[in-house]
Design brief:
The protein is built from no helices and 15 strands. The strands form three sheets. Strands 1, 2, 6, 11, 12, 13 and 15 form a seven-stranded antiparallel sheet that branches. Strands 5-14-7-8-9-10 form a six-stranded antiparallel sheet, with no helix packed on it. The chain is mainly β.
Length: about 190
């Protein structure tokens, strides 16, 4: 795994564009998933997390060097091994880049959403009150809602980035154009939330 170099005194993310542009993560046979069939916990994928404001919007462009099924780059909301969610740009078993959302409250609820052409997409998480909204976009301007959910009032999840290669030998995931804003969105269905 290659992590970004953060100089002493720098914050990982602050309001506006971060210093993490073009960060790369590479790791083989890694995943975050709690199997709904048998409860097996897979918790080996590298994550880079930070403590966000109570309400926020986090977006990034992700480019994945797809090689094997389930290779992915994701934005994550993470409290612990059994309470987390990821907005994942993932290679399906059929070889199709796909938007996938996983919400884990005990066991993982995995949902394949829409196919994507190419190996690059924009991802966005918005937190408003106790609700989270997952979005994707081909251009970083016109956002499509993929999932709305609640993690529970008592949890204070961190948020950030994850890369995985559960069935493969690893690959490259590049997060760029990262933007974090500690603000509450007013309408989750607006095409532009900033």
């Amino acid at each position: 795994m290659v992590c970004p170099v953060i100089s002493p005194g720098e914050t990982l993310l602050s309001a506006g564009t971060s210093n993490m542009a073009n960060s790369r993560f590479v790791r083989k046979q890694t995943d975050w998933f709690v199997d709904p069939f048998d409860g097996t916990v897979h918790n080996t994928a590298p994550m880079l997390l930070f403590g966000p404001a109570d309400d926020y919007v986090l977006s990034a462009r992700v480019k994945v060097g797809f090689k094997a099924k389930w290779d992915a780059g994701a934005l994550v909301v993470w409290a612990d091994d059994h309470h987390w969610a990821k907005l994942s740009f993932e290679l399906s078993p059929a070889g199709q880049p796909t938007m996938v959302t996983v919400v884990t409250r005990g066991l993982s609820d995995d949902c394949n959403s829409i196919p994507i052409s190419g190996n690059t997409v924009h991802l966005q998480i918005a937190k408003s009150g106790s609700a989270y909204v997952f979005y994707s976009s081909s251009d970083g301007k016109n956002w499509q809602v993929l999932r709305v959910f609640n993690m529970g009032e008592r949890l204070k999840p961190r948020v950030g980035f994850e890369s995985q290669s559960p069935a493969g030998e690893g690959g490259e995931v590049v997060f760029s154009g990262i933007h974090y804003s500690p603000q509450k969105i007013t309408n989750i269905y607006k095409s532009e939330v900033f």
